[in-house]
């Protein structure tokens, strides 16, 4: 086997692969031998020899037997040929087999020879239209079908894989360390690759696929864990916070933290204190109390003498955070400042130097926080609220405002496990899996638009007990102007119905910021009992006295968004209701509505959302961050993915893991492939 070195050899080392074919293979992302050997079939044709009495008409089958009479070739048309011979299946069954336009097969068909023929069975004629002759008479196995394209045809891939396996089988070594292979009953890599391409049976193919998926996820996860480890060794600031002061602050909160909040606060504080860079994702369902956790973390940073920043996606949210934080910190030495696009030039002019000098130590804002003119004295902790609303660059920009500040990213709604493991795999994750005590459940109902009038009576009854209601107006994707018109029409209608007993307010995206804020404040102070709004109230808004959420055209919203909207109620001590108004036009929309009425659990919903829409739609097509796996499906194979992640964590966690005997092949493989990736770009 001269010349065979390793699976990282370029495919051009293989016989029959010249520069042109190598180029063509590149269109299938096949560059080296390993790429080719892990270019797996997506299905198999069953080549098991069959008994003709069990066959259905037009079935593709393999029949085995002996050649009973010499083939006869007849010509027809201009250049067409038909080759026919008789195949003796057993003592009393002979069937005619026909091949078109392959006269050369004649030489393979000596009388008395045993063979297996793959083809299409014709039940009426009891004959077989042959497609290929399978060497040997066992007829065993399954034909592999690969994803092919115009440049590289099916047959080419099959041949190349065969010859690559023949040549390189001796150098295929196990990548998954032996203890793991034993624990999860996985195949050796050589066997896995063999059985993926040339399985002897369905079962063999399935066993191989299970190992292939595990291997693919495991390699991906080990890489992620290595990146994470490198991130951790980055020199971050050690924020030596003042524990007694932090405890005083927590004791002064108007409520007791939930057990989950306490656990998460500990996880974060542990990271703050260490001289590493924290990159942590804080997950929790709507209303689980993420904001106060962020406040505690920011206060910790401040007691360590650093600054903290909180970036939110909208003006309303930034202002609400600034107000809440100012209240929370009223009796503590924290100077809260708000910086948004709406901040007046004069205010901005006084604020910027204060941020640069450090006299302001808690800065809340929107994208304005990452503008180049904004200089921080010493940014120790950057918190990003509703982090999915920001692009990677914006998150990075905030991070660059300090010297490796710790980063705490918060999500609006729970992220499905699949995405937490793949798209956010390089972050540490903290989960608040518990709502504050005393929360009343939200009852969700779905009505048709012709039932709205009777529902309004129930809403009035609810308001008469002193509660407030949100009314979210239809979402028309194309234009904000149309959204506004809809909102105004519904606003008029509600005024007619509810005033003068109750007052109705209107909020839409086209209003000026100070108008929006004025309306929000008035609603908060119960000057309005009904707030008609477009989705500007979607995230974060916190008015505990509101107990009704009506959503028009609910079928136009995604599950995550509906769950966010619903999360605006159920924040106080009173029971709440969410009313979805929808006349859905398709099955998927119906399923979204029934899912909403059947669960309040954001983790369940997010998983359902992922199944209904796929990862691309959830995180945005272009930057879903979910890698393209070859065999594994991170949604359907979540179990294997989680197990592989756990295994990878354990592998990388042990000190000097790359030098251990069991891991040598793995480490070598990762370093050669990593090298290739960097040189390819
Ligand atoms: P989210 O996780 O959706 O951002 P918030 O941080 O807005 O949730 O919290 C929702 C509401 O719950 C707020 O009014 C907040 O003051 C309150 N809250 C937070 N933690 C607790 C707690 N441990 N006990 C009672 N109420 C709490
Ligand atoms: Mg929030």
TrEMBL record:
EC number: 5.6.2.4
Keyword hit for DNA-binding: yes
Gene Ontology annotations of biological process type: DNA recombination; DNA repair
Catalysis performed (reactions): Couples ATP hydrolysis with the unwinding of duplex DNA by translocating in the 3'-5' direction; ATP + H2O = ADP + phosphate + H(+)
Pfam families referenced in this protein's UniProt entry, alphabetically: DEAD (PF00270), Helicase_C (PF00271), RecG_dom3_C (PF19833), RecG_wedge (PF17191)
SUPFAM superfamilies in the cross-refs: Nucleic acid-binding proteins, P-loop containing nucleoside triphosphate hydrolases
Highest taxon listed in the record's lineage: Bacteria
Keywords: ATP-binding, DNA damage, DNA recombination, DNA repair, DNA-binding, Helicase, Hydrolase, Isomerase, Nucleotide-binding
Homology family: Belongs to the helicase family. RecG subfamily.
PANTHER family, A to Z: ATP-DEPENDENT DNA HELICASE HOMOLOG RECG, CHLOROPLASTIC (PTHR47964)
Job of this protein: Plays a critical role in recombination and DNA repair. Helps process Holliday junction intermediates to mature products by catalyzing branch migration. Has replication fork regression activity, unwinds stalled or blocked replication forks to make a HJ that can be resolved. Has a DNA unwinding activity characteristic of a DNA helicase with 3'-5' polarity.
NCBIfam families recorded: PRK10917.1-3, PRK10917.2-2, recG
Protein name, as recorded: ATP-dependent DNA helicase RecG
Organism encoding this protein: Levilactobacillus paucivorans
Source organism phylogeny: Bacteria, Bacillati, Bacillota, Bacilli, Lactobacillales
